[in-house]
Amino acid sequence: MGKLSVCSALVTGANRGIGLGFVQHLLALPNPPEWVFAGCRDPKGQRAQELQKLASKHPNVVTVPLEVTDPASIKAAAASVGERLKGSGLNLLINNAGIVRPNTLDNETLKDMAEVYMTNTTAPLLLSQAFLPLLKKAAQGSTGSGMSCSKAAIVNISSIAGSIEEMYLWDIAHCVSYRCSKAALNMLTRCQSMGYREHGILCVAFHPGWVQTDMGNAGGQMAPVTVDASVGGMLKVLSKLSEKDSGSYLDWEGNVVAW
Asked: What pLDDT is recorded for position 216?
């Protein structure tokens, strides 16, 4: 894991679960980032206490107010991060924030479809657009040829639930809006990999596993993968990726997931 060496990273949904795990693991790297930007809706709120503790102990952790469904909030966050970076770029954008509505095929609603798609698919698009200038700056400022996550990368946290071939756990949970949003996020990742290739920005979609988070355990069953195992695995995989992997759909152990 020591190969991953980034000067700066931004994680959305960083106050709990996988997002908080990313912040913790980035700080624990042999060569931790100079800046870890932790985006969440309410950094000073009750649900961000663990993040607040981390920020109080680590001066390189900067909490960023970020409502990923609000374009004005995204714009303000990008400006704030840009000011803090003082002319250097952003190496790693981890689009982790996501929501699920446990509806069946029969009771799925217009409201939930729109809300879940906005958070899980449209928000990563808008965030990537807003932070593109900083990602491009990081790629341009890096030495050596080719792409890597240590230079500039967009990491979209997807799910095997978005795999049309797998239809993972359909018998347990339909979650139609969630499945559709993640399938669309996978296509967005492919589009980004094509569109941002010329800028040297690597793009990848990750299935983090069925993880022991509030969301992962929401169905009443204990998820099999810990946050530590998932995030540690993803960072290990990220450290090994190159331009040939851009646009891939991988799991936390580096296996290719079927579209």
From this structure: 52
- The Cα–Cα gap between 117 and 139 comes to 29
Structure token pair of residue 52: 């607040």
Cα 255 from Cα 54, distance rounded (Å): 31
Instruction: Give the sign of the dihedral formed by CA 232, CA 5, CA 119, CA 206.
Output: negative
**Helical ranges in 58-156 per DSSP H:** 71-85, 110-117, 123-141
Quickly tell me which residue has 């450290």 as its tokens. Answer: 239
b/e burial code for range 217-231 (CB count within 10 A of at least 16 → b): eeeeeebebebebbb
Q: How far apart are CA 19 and CA 236, in angstroms?
A: 16
Identify the pLDDT of residue 39.
Answer: 97
Residues 6+ apart with CB under 8 A from 143: none
Residue type present at position 78: A
C-alpha–C-alpha distance, residues 96 and 156, integer Å: 6
State the amino acid at position 87 in one-letter form: G
Tell me the mean pLDDT per 10 residues along the chain, length 259. 81 96 96 96 93 96 97 98 95 96 93 98 98 97 86 97 86 91 98 97 95 62 84 96 97 96
Distance CA 238, CA 14 (A): 18
pTM of the model as a whole: 0.94
Backbone angles phi, psi at 176, to 5 degrees: -60, -45
- What's the pLDDT score for residue 2? 41
Structural contact between residues 230 and 21, judged by C-beta atoms closer than 8 angstroms? yes
